[in-house]
Amino acid sequence: MMENRGKQKGISLIEMIVAIAIMAIMLGMASLVLTQGIRMWQREASSVSLEDQLRSVADRILRDIRLCYTATALNNTTLTATARTSTGFITYTYGYNSGTKEIWRKINNGSQDPIASDIAQPPNFKVISLTETSTPPLLVEIAISSSRNGVTKTVTLNAYLRNK
Question: Which range has the top average pLDDT, 2-6, 130-134, 150-154?
């Protein structure tokens, strides 16, 4: 019988078990690498989405501010700016509601309309005089930060105010 065994083709049970164990280890490592890649992709997608949201809010504020000739920042968290139109004046006020985590805008004495939600920190508004007098040119700096999925992003934009 021993002579016959040497001529048989195939693999033994032990060889099969060893091969399955090696494949299981390799698949486990591959799934670990794939899972890490998916997590990194999701985190980056969330980061890009957050930055887009912050930039959109800052751009919206800047569109209004560029029409204005005067601006003041109260405690760097509330910004008020005034524009002259053909029918009179428009006053824009921007602020932050810490309870709802929203940035809001108020036109003249109207209601506070939210323009961004899920903003973790208050925006930072600065009005910088570039001359020795209080007349323009004034520079308005807007910095908005927020966090999502462990990623914190800050967008900072600047705008010059119009002359009267």
Answer: 150-154
